[in-house]
Specification:
45% of the residues lie in helices and 17% in strands. The protein is α+β, with helices and mostly antiparallel strands. The chain folds into two domains: 29-140 and 294-361, Periplasmic binding protein-like II (D-Maltodextrin-Binding Protein, domain 2), CATH 3.40.190; 142-292 and 365-406, Periplasmic binding protein-like II (D-Maltodextrin-Binding Protein, domain 2, 3-Layer(aba) Sandwich), CATH 3.40.190. The radius of gyration is 25 Å and the shape is globular.
């Protein structure tokens, strides 16, 4: 009887363990855009911490380089019927992949999430589409107004906050060679490149919009027209022509002020030659505080069989502890309002970075966003190089975008 009792106890324990393992063990695939070392280290930390707290959930992590690699991987996975459970991707993916039936709406999860009132409004907006929530922003890349503290102080110039002040400061700080060409730029601005979001900063800073009631507005867009007029008048006097795909002249020490991706400024801030000489602020505006801010978000794939566990991982990544850890490891701004003050204590310029996130707008969340990017680039280049008059460029842009949308 004693042996039988022991045997029954052992069998009960084995069956219980087997049932627990079968019921509770969940494996989730996760692929995110980007392959930089700092963020990879963060994700390794996050996954280890999450799995330690949730031993029944395993995260299968993968990453893809920015560009075609990520989209090719996702397209292949979904086309094969497999899909991906958790996806870390950017704003441009939202409309396309929602319409393709690849991103799951997470409205119910979001409403029940205790952090829903903490995520910055500007960040939250990036993951919404047609009135539904699809993604939550974990990584932001604001464009900041960077300036040389030493040069402004030497010239007795305050940090510009308006377009007029920017123009005056830029002309004062620009120097010329013997032929009258700009040798040192007072304010540098890319006139070619893959995604000329700098124009967006000026257009938004003038209170403008590219899209009204879901439709593109280029023709008769007075706010955009005024932004182009301002830049067209200023840049010939102060700018060094360069591409947004090249090193910004400000970073190489050849400009006094610029608009620049916060991450692209890192090398200069780490350069001892410029220690204490570089400042960051919200871009100068013409009445409306604004900047451009990119955003990567976490989505749940529609083929995910364990969305509860997937959102559990997302909510862990979006928690204050994890968000602050990400800011420390990856050197990116926080996305939660409750952490802004603590983030500001980490670096003297973090308050300005947070402002650029708070007032930042990303790429349009529309199925024709890549067409928008191409058309906006043509406007910027054709007008600022003097190839076309502003009204002509805007009218052609309107016809072009409507043609692209129809086809």
């Amino acid at each position: 009887m004693r042996k039988l009792a022991v045997l029954l106890l052992v069998l009960t324990m084995l069956f219980s363990f087997a049932a627990y393992s079968e019921e509770e063990q969940v494996s989730l695939s996760f692929v995110r855009i980007g392959n930089d070392e700092a963020e990879r280290a963060y994700w390794q930390w996050a996954i280890n911490e999450f799995e330690a707290q949730n031993p029944n959930i395993h995260i299968e992590y993968d990453e893809k380089a920015i560009g075609d690699a990520m989209d090719t991987a996702l397209n292949t996975q979904f086309a094969s019927g497999g899909g991906v459970d958790i996806i870390g991707h950017g704003i441009l993916s939202v409309a396309q992949r929602v319409e393709a039936g690849q991103y799951m709406p997470i409205d119910d999860y979001f409403e029940a999430w205790e952090g829903k009132d903490d995520i910055m409004e500007s960040v939250f907006a990036n993951g919404t589409y047609n009135g539904h929530v699809y993604g939550l922003g974990y990584s932001v890349t604001p464009y900041v107004f960077a300036y040389r503290i030493d040069l402004l102080e030497e010239a007795g110039i305050d940090v510009p906050v308006s377009w007029e002040e920017l123009a005056d400061a830029a002309r004062t700080l620009t120097t010329y060679d013997e032929n009258g060409n700009v040798a040192f730029s007072g304010f540098c601005y890319p006139q070619t490149g893959g995604n000329l979001v700098e124009l967006d900063v000026f257009m938004y800073g003038n209170g403008g919009k590219y899209i009204v009631d879901g439709e593109p507005v280029f023709a008769d867009n007075e706010e955009l027209k005024k932004a182009l007029e301002f830049l067209g008048d200023l840049l010939p006097d102060v700018n060094l022509t360069y591409s947004s795909n090249e090193v910004n002249p400000f970073v190489s020490g050849n400009a006094a002020m610029t608009l620049i991706n916060n991450a692209a400024l890192t090398t200069m801030l780490n350069n001892h030659e410029y220690a204490g000489k570089v400042g960051i602020a919200l871009p100068p505006n013409n009445g409306t505080k604004a900047s451009f801010c990119g955003c990567n978000m976490l989505f749940i794939g529609t083929t995910c069989e364990h969305p509860d566990e997937a959102f559990e991982f997302i909510s862990f990544v979006m928690s204050p502890e994890s968000t602050l850890k990400r800011a420390e490891m990856v050197r990116i701004p926080v996305t939660l309002s409750s952490l802004v003050d603590e983030y500001a204590q980490m670096d003297e310029w973090n308050e300005a970075r947070s402002l650029c996130v708070e007032y930042g707008t990303g790429m349009p969340r529309v199925t024709w966003s890549t067409s928008f990017q191409a058309v906006r680039n043509v406007i910027s280049q054709s007008v600022l190089f003097g190839d076309k008059a502003i009204d002509e460029a805007l009218n052609e842009a309107q016809s072009d975008i409507e043609f692209r949308m129809a086809n």
